[in-house]
Amino acid sequence: MKILKSFVAGRWHEATADLVPLINPSTEETIAQASSTGVDFAAVLLHARQQGAPALRELSFVQRGALLKAMSKVLRQNRDELLDLSRLNNGTTPSDGSFDIDGGGATLAYYAGLARGFEDGGLMTDGGDVPLNRSGGFWGRHVWVPRRGVAVHINAFNFPVWGFAEKAAAALLAGVPVITKPATSTALVAQRCVEIIIDAGVLPDGALQLICGSTGDLLEQLEPQDVVAFTGSAATAIKLRQGERLLAANCRFNVEADSLNAAVLGPDIEPNSRVFEMFLEDVTREMTQKAGQKCTAVRRILVPQRNLEEVREALADRLSSVVTGNPSEEAVRMGPLASAQQLEDALEGVVELHRDARMVVGNGQRVDGVGSPAGKGFFLQPTLFEASDPGGEGAFHHREVFAPVATLLTYDGSATVAANLMSLAGGTLVTSLYSDDQEWLAEFLEAGASDTGRIYIGSESTVGEGPGSGAAMPQTLHGGPGRAGGGEELGSLIGAQLYMQRVALQGDQALLGRLTEGRQLEK
Ligand code: NAP
Protein backbone atom coordinates (compact mmCIF):
# COMPACT_ATOMS: atom_id res chain seq x y z
CA MET A 1 0.00 0.00 0.00
CA LYS A 2 1.37 3.40 -0.98
CA ILE A 3 2.19 5.63 2.00
CA LEU A 4 2.16 9.34 1.20
CA LYS A 5 5.41 10.91 2.34
CA SER A 6 5.78 14.40 3.74
CA PHE A 7 8.59 16.59 2.36
CA VAL A 8 10.20 18.18 5.39
CA ALA A 9 13.58 19.76 6.13
CA GLY A 10 14.88 18.83 2.70
CA ARG A 11 13.96 15.13 2.72
CA TRP A 12 11.00 12.78 2.29
CA HIS A 13 9.58 11.41 5.53
CA GLU A 14 7.51 8.21 5.54
CA ALA A 15 5.42 7.63 8.66
CA THR A 16 4.92 4.15 10.07
CA ALA A 17 2.19 4.86 12.63
CA ASP A 18 -1.28 6.44 12.80
CA LEU A 19 -1.85 5.84 9.09
CA VAL A 20 -5.15 7.15 7.71
CA PRO A 21 -6.59 5.45 4.60
CA LEU A 22 -7.31 7.40 1.42
CA ILE A 23 -10.34 5.98 -0.38
CA ASN A 24 -11.48 5.90 -4.00
CA PRO A 25 -14.96 7.44 -3.55
CA SER A 26 -16.37 5.63 -6.59
CA THR A 27 -15.47 2.12 -5.41
CA GLU A 28 -14.56 2.54 -1.72
CA GLU A 29 -11.22 0.82 -2.32
CA THR A 30 -8.27 2.02 -0.24
CA ILE A 31 -5.71 3.59 -2.55
CA ALA A 32 -3.07 4.96 -0.16
CA GLN A 33 -2.38 5.89 3.44
CA ALA A 34 -1.06 9.04 5.07
CA SER A 35 0.27 10.20 8.41
CA SER A 36 2.67 12.86 9.64
CA THR A 37 3.67 10.97 12.79
CA GLY A 38 7.39 11.35 13.39
CA VAL A 39 7.70 14.73 11.66
CA ASP A 40 9.77 17.15 13.73
CA PHE A 41 7.72 20.35 13.27
CA ALA A 42 10.31 22.55 14.99
CA ALA A 43 12.81 21.41 12.37
CA VAL A 44 10.29 22.11 9.61
CA LEU A 45 9.87 25.72 10.77
CA LEU A 46 13.62 26.16 11.25
CA HIS A 47 14.29 24.87 7.74
CA ALA A 48 11.81 27.32 6.25
CA ARG A 49 13.23 30.23 8.28
CA GLN A 50 16.92 29.45 7.80
CA GLN A 51 16.97 28.05 4.24
CA GLY A 52 13.78 28.93 2.38
CA ALA A 53 13.23 32.51 3.52
CA PRO A 54 16.72 33.90 2.84
CA ALA A 55 16.92 32.02 -0.48
CA LEU A 56 13.64 33.52 -1.66
CA ARG A 57 14.45 37.03 -0.45
CA GLU A 58 17.78 36.82 -2.26
CA LEU A 59 15.81 36.65 -5.52
CA SER A 60 14.13 39.61 -7.15
CA PHE A 61 10.38 39.81 -7.57
CA VAL A 62 10.89 38.98 -11.25
CA GLN A 63 13.07 35.96 -10.45
CA ARG A 64 10.47 34.62 -8.04
CA GLY A 65 7.89 35.03 -10.76
CA ALA A 66 10.10 32.77 -12.90
CA LEU A 67 9.90 30.10 -10.18
CA LEU A 68 6.10 30.20 -10.39
CA LYS A 69 6.26 29.89 -14.15
CA ALA A 70 8.48 26.81 -13.80
CA MET A 71 6.07 25.30 -11.27
CA SER A 72 3.16 25.88 -13.61
CA LYS A 73 5.08 24.30 -16.49
CA VAL A 74 5.98 21.07 -14.67
CA LEU A 75 2.43 20.66 -13.42
CA ARG A 76 1.16 21.11 -16.96
CA GLN A 77 3.65 18.53 -18.23
CA ASN A 78 2.22 16.00 -15.76
CA ARG A 79 -1.42 16.97 -16.26
CA ASP A 80 -2.63 13.55 -17.45
CA GLU A 81 -1.19 11.75 -14.45
CA LEU A 82 -2.70 14.34 -12.09
CA LEU A 83 -6.10 13.99 -13.76
CA ASP A 84 -5.93 10.22 -13.17
CA LEU A 85 -5.02 10.67 -9.51
CA SER A 86 -7.81 13.21 -9.10
CA ARG A 87 -10.32 10.75 -10.53
CA LEU A 88 -9.01 8.04 -8.18
CA ASN A 89 -8.97 10.08 -4.98
CA ASN A 90 -11.46 12.91 -5.58
CA GLY A 91 -13.86 11.07 -7.89
CA THR A 92 -13.63 13.85 -10.45
CA THR A 93 -14.74 13.69 -14.08
CA PRO A 94 -12.08 14.90 -16.56
CA SER A 95 -13.72 18.30 -16.69
CA ASP A 96 -13.96 18.61 -12.89
CA GLY A 97 -10.36 17.44 -12.52
CA SER A 98 -9.26 19.99 -15.08
CA PHE A 99 -11.08 22.77 -13.20
CA ASP A 100 -8.81 22.02 -10.23
CA ILE A 101 -5.55 21.11 -11.98
CA ASP A 102 -5.57 23.56 -14.89
CA GLY A 103 -6.98 26.22 -12.57
CA GLY A 104 -3.98 25.73 -10.27
CA GLY A 105 -1.51 25.93 -13.16
CA ALA A 106 -3.21 29.01 -14.59
CA THR A 107 -3.09 30.79 -11.23
CA LEU A 108 0.65 30.11 -10.91
CA ALA A 109 1.13 31.38 -14.47
CA TYR A 110 -0.94 34.50 -13.74
CA TYR A 111 1.21 35.41 -10.72
CA ALA A 112 4.34 34.70 -12.75
CA GLY A 113 3.10 37.23 -15.31
CA LEU A 114 2.25 39.75 -12.62
CA ALA A 115 5.85 39.68 -11.39
CA ARG A 116 7.06 40.93 -14.77
CA GLY A 117 5.42 44.27 -13.98
CA PHE A 118 8.08 44.81 -11.31
CA GLU A 119 11.07 44.73 -13.61
CA ASP A 120 12.16 48.20 -12.59
CA GLY A 121 12.41 47.24 -8.93
CA GLY A 122 11.32 49.80 -6.37
CA LEU A 123 9.41 49.21 -3.17
CA MET A 124 5.76 48.51 -3.79
CA THR A 125 4.02 51.75 -2.88
CA ASP A 126 0.42 52.04 -1.81
CA GLY A 127 -1.25 55.29 -2.86
CA GLY A 128 0.49 58.59 -3.42
CA ASP A 129 2.49 60.82 -1.07
CA VAL A 130 0.57 62.83 1.50
CA PRO A 131 1.76 66.11 3.07
CA LEU A 132 1.97 65.88 6.85
CA ASN A 133 2.50 69.58 7.65
CA ARG A 134 1.46 72.94 6.26
CA SER A 135 4.85 74.00 4.88
CA GLY A 136 5.11 70.88 2.69
CA GLY A 137 8.43 69.94 4.31
CA PHE A 138 7.25 66.63 5.83
CA TRP A 139 5.57 63.83 3.90
CA GLY A 140 4.14 60.36 4.29
CA ARG A 141 4.12 57.39 1.95
CA HIS A 142 3.03 53.76 2.36
CA VAL A 143 5.11 50.83 1.14
CA TRP A 144 4.76 47.05 1.25
CA VAL A 145 7.65 44.83 2.37
CA PRO A 146 7.76 40.98 2.59
CA ARG A 147 7.12 39.49 6.00
CA ARG A 148 10.08 37.63 7.44
CA GLY A 149 8.11 34.58 8.50
CA VAL A 150 6.76 31.39 6.98
CA ALA A 151 3.43 30.70 5.30
CA VAL A 152 1.46 27.76 6.69
CA HIS A 153 -1.20 26.69 4.20
CA ILE A 154 -4.02 24.40 5.37
CA ASN A 155 -6.26 23.34 2.50
CA ALA A 156 -9.71 21.83 2.05
CA PHE A 157 -10.34 18.43 0.46
CA ASN A 158 -12.10 19.71 -2.64
CA PHE A 159 -9.32 21.58 -4.47
CA PRO A 160 -6.07 19.67 -3.83
CA VAL A 161 -4.22 21.37 -6.70
CA TRP A 162 -5.80 24.80 -7.07
CA GLY A 163 -5.91 25.26 -3.29
CA PHE A 164 -2.20 24.46 -3.01
CA ALA A 165 -1.19 26.45 -6.09
CA GLU A 166 -3.13 29.66 -5.50
CA LYS A 167 -1.83 30.03 -1.98
CA ALA A 168 1.74 29.03 -2.88
CA ALA A 169 1.81 31.45 -5.83
CA ALA A 170 0.98 34.46 -3.67
CA ALA A 171 3.36 33.54 -0.82
CA LEU A 172 6.34 32.61 -2.98
CA LEU A 173 5.93 35.74 -5.07
CA ALA A 174 6.03 37.80 -1.88
CA GLY A 175 9.21 35.95 -0.87
CA VAL A 176 7.78 33.84 1.95
CA PRO A 177 8.50 30.07 2.20
CA VAL A 178 5.54 27.70 2.22
CA ILE A 179 4.59 24.75 4.42
CA THR A 180 1.54 23.24 2.74
CA LYS A 181 -0.89 20.76 4.25
CA PRO A 182 -3.58 19.21 2.05
CA ALA A 183 -6.71 17.69 3.57
CA THR A 184 -5.71 14.13 4.42
CA SER A 185 -8.65 12.39 2.74
CA THR A 186 -7.67 13.68 -0.74
CA ALA A 187 -3.94 14.28 -0.30
CA LEU A 188 -2.91 12.02 -3.19
CA VAL A 189 -2.99 14.71 -5.89
CA ALA A 190 -1.46 17.51 -3.83
CA GLN A 191 1.32 15.19 -2.67
CA ARG A 192 2.15 14.28 -6.24
CA CYS A 193 2.14 17.96 -7.26
CA VAL A 194 4.73 18.77 -4.62
CA GLU A 195 6.75 15.69 -5.58
CA ILE A 196 6.77 16.81 -9.23
CA ILE A 197 7.89 20.32 -8.28
CA ILE A 198 10.60 19.09 -5.88
CA ASP A 199 11.90 16.50 -8.38
CA ALA A 200 12.07 19.17 -11.08
CA GLY A 201 14.35 21.19 -8.78
CA VAL A 202 12.64 24.44 -9.65
CA LEU A 203 12.53 25.87 -6.13
CA PRO A 204 15.30 26.77 -3.71
CA ASP A 205 15.83 24.49 -0.72
CA GLY A 206 13.30 25.20 2.04
CA ALA A 207 10.91 27.23 -0.15
CA LEU A 208 8.28 24.48 -0.16
CA GLN A 209 7.57 21.76 2.42
CA LEU A 210 4.66 19.36 2.55
CA ILE A 211 2.82 17.80 5.48
CA CYS A 212 0.68 14.75 4.71
CA GLY A 213 -1.44 14.14 7.79
CA SER A 214 -1.97 16.28 10.86
CA THR A 215 -0.09 19.50 11.63
CA GLY A 216 1.01 18.10 15.01
CA ASP A 217 2.43 20.89 17.16
CA LEU A 218 3.29 23.13 14.20
CA LEU A 219 0.75 25.83 15.02
CA GLU A 220 1.97 26.01 18.63
CA GLN A 221 5.37 27.20 17.44
CA LEU A 222 4.42 30.08 15.17
CA GLU A 223 6.05 33.51 15.37
CA PRO A 224 4.55 36.99 14.83
CA GLN A 225 5.80 37.33 11.25
CA ASP A 226 4.22 34.00 10.21
CA VAL A 227 1.03 33.75 8.18
CA VAL A 228 -1.55 30.98 8.33
CA ALA A 229 -3.89 30.70 5.36
CA PHE A 230 -6.71 28.27 6.04
CA THR A 231 -9.41 26.94 3.73
CA GLY A 232 -12.06 24.65 5.12
CA SER A 233 -15.17 24.60 7.24
CA ALA A 234 -16.24 27.47 9.47
CA ALA A 235 -16.17 25.06 12.43
CA THR A 236 -12.45 24.24 11.97
CA ALA A 237 -11.69 27.91 11.34
CA ILE A 238 -13.26 28.88 14.67
CA LYS A 239 -11.20 26.24 16.48
CA LEU A 240 -7.93 27.30 14.87
CA ARG A 241 -8.65 31.00 15.31
CA GLN A 242 -8.80 30.46 19.07
CA GLY A 243 -5.40 28.74 19.16
CA GLU A 244 -3.40 30.14 22.08
CA ARG A 245 -0.18 30.57 20.12
CA LEU A 246 -1.92 32.12 17.13
CA LEU A 247 -3.51 34.68 19.44
CA ALA A 248 -0.38 35.33 21.51
CA ALA A 249 1.90 35.80 18.51
CA ASN A 250 -0.86 37.60 16.59
CA CYS A 251 0.08 35.78 13.40
CA ARG A 252 -1.86 36.83 10.37
CA PHE A 253 -4.66 34.30 9.89
CA ASN A 254 -6.59 34.26 6.64
CA VAL A 255 -9.76 32.21 6.48
CA GLU A 256 -11.70 30.98 3.45
CA ALA A 257 -14.68 29.08 4.80
CA ASP A 258 -18.31 28.10 4.20
CA SER A 259 -20.60 30.01 1.93
CA LEU A 260 -24.27 29.83 1.03
CA ASN A 261 -23.94 31.60 -2.31
CA ALA A 262 -27.02 32.97 -4.00
CA ALA A 263 -27.89 33.22 -7.72
CA VAL A 264 -30.58 35.85 -8.31
CA LEU A 265 -32.74 36.15 -11.40
CA GLY A 266 -33.73 39.77 -12.00
CA PRO A 267 -37.39 40.63 -12.71
CA ASP A 268 -36.52 42.04 -16.15
CA ILE A 269 -35.34 38.70 -17.53
CA GLU A 270 -37.97 37.05 -19.69
CA PRO A 271 -38.32 33.27 -19.85
CA ASN A 272 -36.61 31.76 -22.90
CA SER A 273 -34.42 34.84 -23.37
CA ARG A 274 -30.67 34.39 -23.76
CA VAL A 275 -29.98 35.64 -20.24
CA PHE A 276 -32.66 33.33 -18.82
CA GLU A 277 -30.99 30.36 -20.54
CA MET A 278 -27.60 31.48 -19.26
CA PHE A 279 -29.00 31.67 -15.73
CA LEU A 280 -30.30 28.09 -15.97
CA GLU A 281 -27.07 26.82 -17.46
CA ASP A 282 -24.96 28.57 -14.81
CA VAL A 283 -27.10 27.36 -11.91
CA THR A 284 -27.03 23.77 -13.18
CA ARG A 285 -23.26 23.86 -13.57
CA GLU A 286 -22.65 25.63 -10.26
CA MET A 287 -24.78 23.00 -8.49
CA THR A 288 -23.26 19.93 -10.09
CA GLN A 289 -19.65 20.74 -10.99
CA LYS A 290 -17.39 18.74 -8.65
CA ALA A 291 -20.62 17.24 -7.30
CA GLY A 292 -21.39 20.57 -5.66
CA GLN A 293 -18.22 20.41 -3.55
CA LYS A 294 -17.15 23.96 -4.31
CA CYS A 295 -17.10 26.79 -1.80
CA THR A 296 -18.44 28.97 -4.61
CA ALA A 297 -21.28 26.61 -5.60
CA VAL A 298 -24.81 28.02 -5.81
CA ARG A 299 -26.79 26.99 -2.71
CA ARG A 300 -29.76 29.39 -2.96
CA ILE A 301 -31.61 30.29 -6.16
CA LEU A 302 -33.72 33.45 -5.88
CA VAL A 303 -36.38 33.96 -8.53
CA PRO A 304 -39.27 36.41 -8.86
CA GLN A 305 -42.50 34.74 -7.78
CA ARG A 306 -43.92 34.95 -11.32
CA ASN A 307 -40.97 32.93 -12.76
CA LEU A 308 -41.05 30.13 -10.20
CA GLU A 309 -42.81 27.55 -12.31
CA GLU A 310 -40.67 27.98 -15.44
CA VAL A 311 -37.45 27.95 -13.44
CA ARG A 312 -38.48 24.94 -11.37
CA GLU A 313 -39.41 22.92 -14.44
CA ALA A 314 -36.36 23.88 -16.46
CA LEU A 315 -33.96 23.16 -13.59
CA ALA A 316 -35.70 19.87 -12.80
CA ASP A 317 -35.23 18.81 -16.44
CA ARG A 318 -31.59 19.72 -16.50
CA LEU A 319 -30.71 18.28 -13.10
CA SER A 320 -32.55 15.01 -13.65
CA SER A 321 -30.57 14.35 -16.81
CA VAL A 322 -27.16 14.60 -15.11
CA VAL A 323 -25.59 11.11 -15.23
CA THR A 324 -24.08 10.35 -11.82
CA GLY A 325 -21.46 7.65 -11.44
CA ASN A 326 -17.88 6.48 -11.67
CA PRO A 327 -15.98 9.10 -13.68
CA SER A 328 -14.10 6.31 -15.50
CA GLU A 329 -17.32 5.90 -17.52
CA GLU A 330 -17.49 8.27 -20.45
CA ALA A 331 -21.21 8.99 -20.05
CA VAL A 332 -20.83 10.15 -16.45
CA ARG A 333 -21.21 13.90 -15.92
CA MET A 334 -21.07 14.01 -12.11
CA GLY A 335 -18.90 11.92 -9.81
CA PRO A 336 -19.37 10.90 -6.17
CA LEU A 337 -18.84 12.98 -3.06
CA ALA A 338 -15.22 12.75 -1.99
CA SER A 339 -15.56 10.63 1.15
CA ALA A 340 -17.92 8.66 3.39
CA GLN A 341 -17.78 11.58 5.82
CA GLN A 342 -18.89 14.04 3.12
CA LEU A 343 -21.78 11.78 2.11
CA GLU A 344 -22.89 11.37 5.71
CA ASP A 345 -22.71 15.11 6.30
CA ALA A 346 -24.62 15.83 3.06
CA LEU A 347 -27.38 13.35 3.90
CA GLU A 348 -27.79 14.96 7.33
CA GLY A 349 -27.92 18.36 5.67
CA VAL A 350 -30.58 17.22 3.22
CA VAL A 351 -32.74 16.11 6.15
CA GLU A 352 -32.31 19.54 7.74
CA LEU A 353 -33.22 21.38 4.54
CA HIS A 354 -36.21 19.10 4.04
CA ARG A 355 -37.74 20.41 7.28
CA ASP A 356 -38.13 23.84 5.70
CA ALA A 357 -38.52 23.06 2.02
CA ARG A 358 -40.07 20.48 -0.27
CA MET A 359 -37.87 18.28 -2.42
CA VAL A 360 -38.38 18.91 -6.13
CA VAL A 361 -35.50 16.84 -7.55
CA GLY A 362 -33.56 13.97 -5.93
CA ASN A 363 -34.45 11.41 -3.29
CA GLY A 364 -32.28 12.37 -0.32
CA GLN A 365 -30.59 8.94 -0.33
CA ARG A 366 -27.25 7.51 -1.33
CA VAL A 367 -27.68 6.03 -4.82
CA ASP A 368 -25.69 3.56 -6.90
CA GLY A 369 -23.52 5.25 -9.51
CA VAL A 370 -23.27 4.28 -13.17
CA GLY A 371 -20.19 2.07 -13.56
CA SER A 372 -19.64 1.50 -9.84
CA PRO A 373 -20.21 -1.75 -7.93
CA ALA A 374 -23.71 -1.97 -6.43
CA GLY A 375 -23.80 -0.59 -2.90
CA LYS A 376 -20.38 1.06 -3.28
CA GLY A 377 -19.44 4.69 -3.78
CA PHE A 378 -20.54 7.95 -2.18
CA PHE A 379 -23.12 9.05 -4.74
CA LEU A 380 -25.89 11.57 -4.27
CA GLN A 381 -28.12 12.76 -7.10
CA PRO A 382 -28.52 16.47 -7.79
CA THR A 383 -31.09 17.62 -5.26
CA LEU A 384 -33.32 20.67 -5.58
CA PHE A 385 -35.53 22.02 -2.80
CA GLU A 386 -38.21 24.69 -2.91
CA ALA A 387 -38.78 26.82 0.16
CA SER A 388 -42.33 27.52 1.24
CA ASP A 389 -41.28 30.52 3.33
CA PRO A 390 -38.06 32.14 2.09
CA GLY A 391 -37.64 34.07 5.37
CA GLY A 392 -34.81 34.03 7.89
CA GLU A 393 -35.61 30.94 9.91
CA GLY A 394 -35.13 28.49 7.05
CA ALA A 395 -32.18 26.08 7.24
CA PHE A 396 -31.37 26.97 3.59
CA HIS A 397 -29.93 30.29 4.84
CA HIS A 398 -27.77 28.64 7.51
CA ARG A 399 -26.82 25.07 6.61
CA GLU A 400 -24.17 24.58 3.94
CA VAL A 401 -24.78 21.17 2.36
CA PHE A 402 -21.49 20.57 0.57
CA ALA A 403 -22.99 18.52 -2.25
CA PRO A 404 -25.10 19.03 -5.43
CA VAL A 405 -27.90 20.50 -3.35
CA ALA A 406 -29.64 23.89 -3.59
CA THR A 407 -32.92 25.55 -2.66
CA LEU A 408 -35.27 27.66 -4.79
CA LEU A 409 -36.64 30.74 -3.04
CA THR A 410 -39.08 33.30 -4.37
CA TYR A 411 -39.05 37.06 -3.89
CA ASP A 412 -41.33 39.86 -5.08
CA GLY A 413 -38.96 41.27 -7.71
CA SER A 414 -37.59 44.05 -5.51
CA ALA A 415 -33.77 44.25 -5.50
CA THR A 416 -33.71 45.23 -1.84
CA VAL A 417 -35.83 42.24 -0.83
CA ALA A 418 -33.57 39.92 -2.86
CA ALA A 419 -30.45 41.46 -1.31
CA ASN A 420 -31.88 41.10 2.19
CA LEU A 421 -32.58 37.41 1.53
CA MET A 422 -29.04 36.95 0.22
CA SER A 423 -27.67 38.64 3.36
CA LEU A 424 -29.47 36.22 5.69
CA ALA A 425 -26.59 33.74 5.18
CA GLY A 426 -24.31 36.03 7.18
CA GLY A 427 -21.59 36.58 4.57
CA THR A 428 -20.90 34.77 1.30
CA LEU A 429 -18.10 34.37 -1.22
CA VAL A 430 -20.04 35.17 -4.36
CA THR A 431 -23.47 36.33 -5.47
CA SER A 432 -24.54 36.05 -9.10
CA LEU A 433 -27.10 38.47 -10.49
CA TYR A 434 -28.84 38.05 -13.84
CA SER A 435 -30.28 41.33 -15.07
CA ASP A 436 -29.89 44.09 -17.62
CA ASP A 437 -31.68 46.63 -15.46
CA GLN A 438 -29.01 49.01 -14.21
CA GLU A 439 -31.24 50.59 -11.60
CA TRP A 440 -32.23 47.21 -10.18
CA LEU A 441 -28.56 46.16 -10.05
CA ALA A 442 -27.53 49.42 -8.37
CA GLU A 443 -30.26 48.97 -5.76
CA PHE A 444 -29.06 45.40 -5.09
CA LEU A 445 -25.49 46.62 -4.62
CA GLU A 446 -26.62 49.36 -2.27
CA ALA A 447 -28.56 46.90 -0.13
CA GLY A 448 -26.32 43.83 -0.21
CA ALA A 449 -22.79 44.33 -1.59
CA SER A 450 -21.12 44.38 1.82
CA ASP A 451 -22.43 40.89 2.60
CA THR A 452 -20.62 39.15 -0.24
CA GLY A 453 -17.04 39.04 -1.52
CA ARG A 454 -17.79 39.08 -5.24
CA ILE A 455 -20.75 40.04 -7.40
CA TYR A 456 -20.94 38.26 -10.73
CA ILE A 457 -23.29 39.94 -13.19
CA GLY A 458 -24.76 38.02 -16.10
CA SER A 459 -26.39 40.25 -18.72
CA GLU A 460 -27.20 40.26 -22.42
CA SER A 461 -23.71 41.42 -23.40
CA THR A 462 -21.95 38.74 -21.30
CA VAL A 463 -23.78 35.70 -22.70
CA GLY A 464 -21.01 33.23 -23.58
CA GLU A 465 -18.34 35.50 -22.06
CA GLY A 466 -18.17 34.88 -18.30
CA PRO A 467 -16.52 31.76 -16.83
CA GLY A 468 -19.39 31.14 -14.38
CA SER A 469 -19.68 32.45 -10.85
CA GLY A 470 -17.89 29.41 -9.41
CA ALA A 471 -14.52 30.25 -10.93
CA ALA A 472 -12.28 32.20 -8.55
CA MET A 473 -10.14 34.22 -10.93
CA PRO A 474 -6.67 35.32 -9.78
CA GLN A 475 -7.22 38.84 -11.16
CA THR A 476 -10.05 39.54 -8.75
CA LEU A 477 -10.60 39.02 -5.05
CA HIS A 478 -11.56 35.63 -3.61
CA GLY A 479 -12.96 35.70 -0.09
CA GLY A 480 -16.03 36.94 1.67
CA PRO A 481 -17.15 38.55 4.93
CA GLY A 482 -18.62 36.96 8.04
CA ARG A 483 -19.33 33.28 7.79
CA ALA A 484 -17.26 33.04 4.56
CA GLY A 485 -14.23 33.65 6.76
CA GLY A 486 -13.43 37.32 6.21
CA GLY A 487 -10.36 36.38 4.19
CA GLU A 488 -8.85 37.94 1.08
CA GLU A 489 -7.00 35.73 -1.37
CA LEU A 490 -6.05 36.31 -5.01
CA GLY A 491 -7.14 39.65 -6.47
CA SER A 492 -3.80 40.28 -8.14
CA LEU A 493 -1.44 41.89 -5.62
CA ILE A 494 -4.04 41.65 -2.84
CA GLY A 495 -3.13 37.94 -2.71
CA ALA A 496 0.59 38.64 -2.27
CA GLN A 497 -0.03 41.40 0.27
CA LEU A 498 -1.29 38.80 2.74
CA TYR A 499 2.40 37.85 3.05
CA MET A 500 3.68 41.42 3.21
CA GLN A 501 3.66 44.22 5.76
CA ARG A 502 2.39 47.71 4.94
CA VAL A 503 4.74 50.29 6.43
CA ALA A 504 4.20 54.04 6.67
CA LEU A 505 7.33 56.06 5.90
CA GLN A 506 7.41 59.67 7.07
CA GLY A 507 10.04 62.33 6.37
CA ASP A 508 11.55 64.45 3.66
CA GLN A 509 9.72 63.74 0.40
CA ALA A 510 12.84 63.59 -1.77
CA LEU A 511 14.53 61.28 0.71
CA LEU A 512 11.51 58.98 0.79
CA GLY A 513 11.65 58.90 -3.00
CA ARG A 514 15.33 57.96 -3.01
CA LEU A 515 14.76 55.27 -0.37
CA THR A 516 11.95 53.61 -2.24
CA GLU A 517 12.63 54.09 -5.93
CA GLY A 518 14.99 51.99 -8.01
CA ARG A 519 15.48 49.46 -5.24
CA GLN A 520 14.48 45.85 -5.30
CA LEU A 521 11.19 45.28 -3.57
CA GLU A 522 12.56 42.65 -1.23
CA LYS A 523 16.06 43.81 -0.24
P1 NAP B 1 -12.28 20.92 7.20
O1 NAP B 1 -12.74 19.63 7.73
O2 NAP B 1 -12.48 22.15 8.01
O3 NAP B 1 -10.72 20.71 6.89
C1 NAP B 1 -9.97 21.70 6.25
C2 NAP B 1 -8.49 21.50 6.55
O4 NAP B 1 -8.26 21.75 7.94
C3 NAP B 1 -7.99 20.08 6.28
O5 NAP B 1 -6.69 20.17 5.73
C4 NAP B 1 -7.93 19.48 7.67
O6 NAP B 1 -6.98 18.46 7.80
C5 NAP B 1 -7.50 20.68 8.47
N1 NAP B 1 -7.75 20.60 9.89
C6 NAP B 1 -8.86 20.14 10.51
N2 NAP B 1 -8.71 20.26 11.85
C7 NAP B 1 -7.49 20.81 12.07
C8 NAP B 1 -6.75 21.16 13.24
N3 NAP B 1 -7.25 21.00 14.45
N4 NAP B 1 -5.51 21.69 13.08
C9 NAP B 1 -4.98 21.86 11.85
N5 NAP B 1 -5.63 21.54 10.71
C10 NAP B 1 -6.87 21.02 10.81
O7 NAP B 1 -12.90 21.25 5.77
P2 NAP B 1 -13.04 20.28 4.51
O8 NAP B 1 -14.09 19.28 4.83
O9 NAP B 1 -11.70 19.80 4.05
O10 NAP B 1 -13.54 21.30 3.41
C11 NAP B 1 -14.90 21.61 3.18
C12 NAP B 1 -15.20 23.02 3.62
O11 NAP B 1 -14.27 23.91 3.06
C13 NAP B 1 -16.54 23.50 3.16
O12 NAP B 1 -17.22 24.07 4.23
C14 NAP B 1 -16.23 24.56 2.12
O13 NAP B 1 -17.18 25.59 2.03
C15 NAP B 1 -14.92 25.07 2.56
N6 NAP B 1 -14.16 25.59 1.43
C16 NAP B 1 -13.98 26.93 1.35
C17 NAP B 1 -13.26 27.46 0.30
C18 NAP B 1 -13.03 28.93 0.18
O14 NAP B 1 -12.18 29.32 -0.60
N7 NAP B 1 -13.74 29.76 0.89
C19 NAP B 1 -12.70 26.61 -0.66
C20 NAP B 1 -12.90 25.25 -0.53
C21 NAP B 1 -13.64 24.74 0.52
P3 NAP B 1 -7.40 16.90 7.82
O15 NAP B 1 -7.98 16.61 6.50
O16 NAP B 1 -6.11 16.21 8.05
O17 NAP B 1 -8.39 16.75 8.93
The distinct bound ligands, ions and cofactors come out as:
NADP nicotinamide-adenine-dinucleotide phosphate
**Overall number of strands:** 24
Q: Enumerate how many helices there are, as a single number.
A: 15
Q: Average pLDDT, to the nearest integer?
A: 95
Major beta-sheet overview = 7 strands, mixed
Strand content: 15-25%
- Helicity level: 25-40%
Envelope shape? globular
* Widest sheet, order of strands: 15-18-19-14-13-20-21
From the N-terminal CA to the C-terminal CA, the straight-line distance is 47 Å
Q: Which class do the helix and strand fractions yield? A: alpha/beta
Write down the Rg.
Answer: 24 Å
Instruction: Give unreliable regions as ranges.
Output: 519-523
Question: Would you write up a description of this structure?
Answer:
The protein is α/β, with parallel strands linked by helices. Helix content is 36%, strand content 22%. It has 15 helices and 24 strands. It has helices at 41-58, 61-77, 79-90, 94-115, 162-174, 187-200, 234-241, 244-249, 274-288, 308-320, 340-356, 415-423, 438-448, 493-497, 509-516; strands at residues 3-4, 6-8, 11-13, 20-23, 30-34, 124-131, 139-146, 151-154, 178-181, 208-210, 227-231, 252-256, 261-265, 298-304, 357-361, 366-367, 379-380, 383-387, 405-411, 428-434, 452-458, 477-478, 489-490, 500-507. The strands form seven sheets. Strands 15-18-19-14-13-20-21 form a seven-stranded mixed beta sheet, with helices on both faces. A five-stranded parallel beta sheet has the order 10-9-8-11-12, sandwiched between helices. Helix 4 runs parallel beside helix 5 and helix 12 packs parallel to helix 13 (438-448). It is globular. Residues 519-523 have low confidence and may be disordered. NADP nicotinamide-adenine-dinucleotide phosphate is lined by residues 154-159, 181, 183-185, 214-215, 231-233, 236, 239-240, 256-259, 295, 400, 402, 429, 485. Residues 154-159, 181, 183-185, 214-215, 231-233, 236, 239-240, 256-259, 295, 400, 402, 429, 485 line the site of NADP nicotinamide-adenine-dinucleotide phosphate (NAP).
